[in-house]
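Researcher: Going back to the complex we discussed earlier. I've cleaned up the inputs and rechecked each line, so this should be the final set. Can you rerun the prediction on the complete assembly and write out the structure?
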Amino acid sequence: MLDHAQDDLRRSFEEGNYLESEALLKKYKQDDIYRSKDQVLYNLESGIIYHFSGKYDSSSVYLTEAENLIDQNYTKSISRGVASFLGNDNNLVYDGEPYEDIYLNSFKALNYIQLQDWDAALVETRRMVYKMEQLDIKIKGIAEAFAKSDSNKTTDWGSKKINIQNSALSHYLAAVLYAKSGDFDDARIESEKLSIALQEQELLSDSRSSSSIDHTKLISPNNYNVLLAGFTGRAPVKVESTARIFIDDDEDDSDDDFYVKFAFPSIQVQPSEVQFVRAVINDTLNIHLDLVEEMDKVAAEVYSAKEPIIYARALTRALAKATGTKWVSNVVKKEKKWLGELISLLGFIGQEVSEKADLRGWQTMPGQAWLQVIQLPEGEHTVRIEHLNHRGRVLYYDEYNIKVSPTTELELIESIYAN
Amino acid sequence: MKKYIILSFITAFLVIGCRPSQKITRIDTDTTTDFSGRWNDTDARLVAEEMIADALSKPWLNRFNRSNQKPPVVIVGRVRNESMEHIDTEVFTKEMERAFVNSGEVSVVANSEEREQIRDERLDQQSNASYESTKKMARELGADFMLIGNINSIVDETVDNRTLAVFYTVNLEFVNVETNQKVWIGNKKIKKLVERRNYRGQP
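Model: Rerun complete. Updated structure for the full complex:
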């Protein structure tokens, strides 16, 4: 039911119908679609929907709750752990993917920028940076922890090295905020880290981002008073892959096949139709936004680092269930063959039904972040953010009327086309 | 007999099941409470207490009094939050203002945000208040010193996230508004260790 609800929510969000998305969330809450174990997801989805609805305070409340729950869910429930072992990982409390934990801070930062609170926005960018720095350490730590607890030493718990140690988005926002706050040294440092982050992103497969983006202007705060932000595409989706391993049971002389089914989630990046994002100012001036972060590819890269651990855990659980059932049925068969066969059959059915990959994930997270800073003169302006395909056709646009005054320090204008 | 047993069970269930889902106890504001490991009211109180005691006991105050024959006038400027948590620095700066005013040894004037409201009111009075009650313009008390500072944090976590150490450092300074000279620097350090359990009983 949750999967269907998430699909409906994503569809209404992709259509830009945020009121419907809000109504769906309220309905799901009333119908208890998001259970206590899914609250991280509920809060993430709510946070994004309220952000793009312009309800920045509410958005921050939900995203903060998601962040707190991710932190609290470090402590695992014993009862849920047992249920997960007997069933599947969908019984576990969803504690968020590492990339979800990182990107929620980016939207909290944008919330605070909209509310003109630079200090609070900088707190969020610092949290993003810290989490990215901890990420590689954490992934290795998980692998070591599993290896330590594996007494048989039959599984390779190694994790892949991830090529992403920085978030370009966090450094871009931090550079802007430090510059606007008058901290020019910090702005320069963030600008340098942004360069490194963009170079790392170029190494990702099929990356479209470029380290040749001119971001040096970020450290000159008097050169801009408007921050344009375009979000496109969608977060990668998890799809279920299943595998069946046939095991020859020497004790059993019957022709029954003994096999282990295990299901695991793998991540798929959903390519966006959008190839360019531009801002049209007063129908006269065209300004291209830079692709600063391919959040979908970074997410996939981060997820891939823990894939060996996920596969090994799924296999271990499935093996334990299958061999446990087989042992019980063999023991019972010695007394009553028909009962042993029944247990074997029920075990087979149970395995087929219960072994299900955990496909939960943040549906409304965008796939790409495009940014640009510009200086607009005093007065009223029309800003239209257009999302274009590879042929230059406008797929979608948002238009805003903004008023720039002498006291305008940084006006944030956002647009999202989640396709 | 059976009926009484069943009735007892139902009564016990109702009594236990109808307990309030939460219990509220009023406690002293000085009580230390640490639930999350994050910055809290205890930390703000500790900072304020130490800074107040330090600021009022250091030589700059007597030196100023001797030179000027009046208590110094202080304005609270910007205390930057450079940590990784949302910390309301006003909680301890307000406490310091209160202590300064009540001590009689330091005068405090409204900060830039507060001043805007007062200036609007004063301007409004020029047009709308009676002549006798209208407050004069250009009579504000200029500050001698500005209180500025920052709060920073360093976080260290074990690889398995079980243990987290957070180190906060709060720096506050009085800066002479005329000469930019720093006459007092206060510093308060707080360190916390957060240990997480791997497992819990309830879902």
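Model: Worth noting: The two ends of chain B are 38 Å apart (CA to CA).
Researcher: Good, that matches what I expected from the previous run.
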